[in-house]
Amino acid sequence: MSSRAISPDQGENPIMADTEVKKIICSSCGAEFEDTLPKCPYCGSLNYKGAEAEYLGKLESMRQDMQQLEQVPEKELKKKLKKKQKFVIKLLILLAALAAILAVIVFRAQGCQSGLSVGKRKLPGSGPVIPGAGLRRTDRFL
């Protein structure tokens, strides 16, 4: 069974006119099949030329897929990183505000426990608070 290229003037596909399908005979079973197949369709014997062509075709397909995959995740990764960066900044601001509020509460609680207010001291026996009047333990009142 011989095959020949179909010419464009016969009304067939002109792309097929450039390629000629070659047949080979299997060395194991003697069956005839196309040389582009990686294996004999009858016995499964390996056809090196067809297997190589199939492998190279798959390799090229994977290379193209990898190029497409490299471009898409880069954009997505940048968006996600920007989003996470904004979240972390907001979280840090919130934590700083909470720390400041906690520091003020602790500072005031310590001041109230000792009976002192910041920058002011009560004089013993007197009613009003006198700003800046600091008493030392060595001072004595009679």
Task: Please specify the SSE layout and strand pairing.
Blueprint: H1 14-18, E1 23-25, E2 32-34, H2 48-113, E3 120-121, E4 130-131
Antiparallel strand pairs: 1-2, 3-4
Oligomer: single chain
Outline: rod-shaped
Order of helices and strands: HEEHEE
Q: In terms of per-residue confidence, which ranges show pLDDT below 50 for 5 or more consecutive residues?
A: 1-18
Q: What's the alpha carbon Rg, rounded to whole Å?
A: 44 Å
Share of helix among residues? 40-55%
> Given the helix and strand composition, which structural class is it?
mainly alpha
Q: In whole angstroms, how far apart are the ends?
A: 133 Å
Kindly state the mean pLDDT as a whole number?
A: 75
Number of strands: 4
Please give the largest β-sheet: 2 strands, antiparallel
Report what the structure shows.
- This protein has 142 residues and is mainly alpha-helical.
- 50% of the residues lie in helices and 7% in strands.
- It starts with 13 loop residues before the first helix and ends in an 11-residue tail after the last strand.
Descriptive labels:
142 residues, mainly alpha, two-stranded antiparallel ribbon, 2 helices, 7% strand, disordered N terminus
